[in-house]
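Appendix B. One record, verbatim.
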Amino acid sequence: MYRSIVCVFVLFYFNSSLTAQPKTDQYLSRILAGNTDAVFSKVLQHPETYRLQIIYTQINRDRHNIPHFKNYYFHYDSLLYFNPASVVKLPLAFLSLEKLNRLKMKGVTKYTPMQFDSTYTGQKVLFKDSTAANSFPSIAQFIKRAFLISENDPYNRMYQFVGQQAINSNLHQKGYRDIRITRQFMNFTPEQNRHTNAIRFIKENGTTLYYQPPAYNTDSFDFSHIIKLGKAYYNRNDSLIQEPFDFTMHNNLSLLDIQGLLQSVLFPASVPKQRRFQLTKDDYHFLYQYLSQYPSETSYPKYDTAVFYDSYAKFFFQDSTRHMPAQLRDFNKVGWSYGFLTDVSYVVDFKNKVEYMLSATVYVNSDSVLNDNRYDYENIGHPFLYQLGQTIYQYELKRKRKYPPDLCKWKLRYDHRNVMDKRPSLKDVDN
């Protein structure tokens, strides 16, 4: 039964990887055309200007509750660059957990305290993490911080743990051959990004359980595809450079790849074994929890919920109320940078027995100047993604299903903020 699903997935993947023209399904176009909101219509009518890409995935269960997936596309092109920004934290979390499992070191788990040394120019040490209950860094704490509000340093630390070489080789071996992850979020040079820190896993008394030496990536990257956007940009010295910004050596992946990565963890049996990650049952549960948990439910880290409200990292549901529908959970990862906004989501509505996947990226930079912090996030980007989310959600509420899904798997136990906790909340976070 799974074989037919897998074959369709594989055949489509390899065909789409060779696509040079945007792919649009009329079925999805008709659904989107039903929303006449002015901002939404404007972006849909000019997909090239906004570098718009959308993937909507219907999920239909059979009588055994086995999910079957059908993708629909709007202006999807695997070769159309978008800056993935924080969505690269998703594969780094998966790879970090997988590496821990492959180490098979006694006493070393995702909760084990870690310490990072500086072993190359520009690297920063990390011995403590004030956001953790035990005040120590760990893979578990990095994933929480990377998922809940998309903090940046946890991504850097997972990158350092897995290593640039292993990140790319492991993803390529799994079949995600077009993914390229080359950069930390630290303004490093390409050479600095090839080096990663020495790391120690320790007991809380300081005893070393496992030592990972510094690493250097000797593999080469294919940067033959030149990617330049805009008409001007500000460099790191705040000087205006009158030429396009060069993304050629930046992180790069396709929207289908990142949705495929999310699907591979949420629904491992729906993808070929090659594409799955080596994770434990507890790893899967942990990922599910923090892909869908809200900042207001979390004590460690204790985020200021006036700044980091429940829909803060849920772009498809981010309206003026800042609240999430009570009957719904969104398992997702967002990214924003250089005028790009991206959300990759699996949405579950328990009350109405609805589930679907939705992924989209949009570029909103009307002045065509990069690094000027004058992007159209608030007046175009976020309103568009919210309208897109509502369009698909409302359509799914009305869509007929032969077999209503059993969604018990996704009814998770979440953390609860202690109302008696008087510690100051985090307001100023790098994300």
